Amino acid sequence: MQSMRIVTLAVLLSSGLAAAGVKTDHQVDISTTYRTASATMGGARNSSDSIQYLTCQIVATASGISGTCDAQNAQGVQRGCRTTNQYLLEAIKSINDTSLVAFLWNENEECTQIIVRQGSMYGPKL
């Protein structure tokens, strides 16, 4: 009886692992009309081409701190923005390999919004 419980438990656990959890990757999407770019870090990294990327960085110097976000989609369209806004810099700091990142910019290529979403459904870059 005990061995039957162990076998049953093993089957349930292994079958649950095969289909467990929502998984979604978003490759790089850029809208020049709405001035937006977005992707999951894993989706950009794991895309089937060698063109897509999404990157954000912070640069600190003795005179100040600034940040940039850049993206390129599968068609080779590249857009980016820069910021010195403390709130947007905090958003950049929170990005990790399981983040969904979206950024918006104005006509001067200044970041107006940076959205960082964390979730179990966004896979890490492999």
Explain what this protein looks like in three dimensions:
- It comes from Myxococcus stipitatus (strain DSM 14675 / JCM 12634 / Mx s8).
- This is Lipoprotein.
- Keywords: Signal.
- Residues 1-20 form the signal peptide.
- This protein has a four-stranded antiparallel sheet with strand order 1-2-6-7. Strands 3-4-5 form a three-stranded antiparallel sheet.
- The radius of gyration is 20 Å and the shape is globular.
- It contains three helices and seven strands, in the order H-E-E-H-E-E-E-H-E-E.
- The longest helix has 18 residues, at 2-19.
- The protein has one domain (23-118).
- It has 126 residues and is α+β, with helices and mostly antiparallel strands.
- Strand 6 (99-105) and strand 7 form a beta hairpin.
- Residues 1-19 have low confidence and may be disordered.
Which SSEs are present, and which pair or pack?
Blueprint lengths: L1 H18 L9 E3 L4 E5 H5 L7 E9 L2 E9 L5 E6 L2 H8 L5 E7 L5 E8 L8
Antiparallel strand pairs: 1-2, 2-6, 3-4, 4-5, 6-7
Organism: Myxococcus stipitatus (strain DSM 14675 / JCM 12634 / Mx s8)
Protein name: Lipoprotein
Keywords: Signal
